[in-house]
Amino acid sequence: MTATPEYVVRALVPALVAGVACYVLLRWAAVPLLAHLETGVEYALNVLVIGFLLPEYCWTRAQRRVSGHAAPFAYTYGDAVCAVASAGHRCTGTVLSALREATGRLGHQGSLCGGLLGAGVLLWAGLT
How far apart are CA 117 and CA 18, in angstroms? Predict the structure, then answer.
């Protein structure tokens, strides 16, 4: 594989910019972003759960108007959706807090290695 010098320069400059951006992101911005991401993922899961529970709610209301009581499976479905949502909250909370702790412990050398890795990947993709 032979590359012309201008081809290498065109691939090297964005790779260096991306490497510096990765370093800055890992060193100073990742921990606060992950803290806010945890809250955002929690809100998104809540909206998803509401979307799954809304048809059951509408069906139960209609059933109560017609027969006076809810269908027996309605409560089981609601409990199952809430159990899955609770497991999702616990899993995402655990993963995101572990990521936040890990990025908080990187330091300058770890962030520099991450930036160099990001630059190397982008440079390799630009040269191939």
Answer: 10
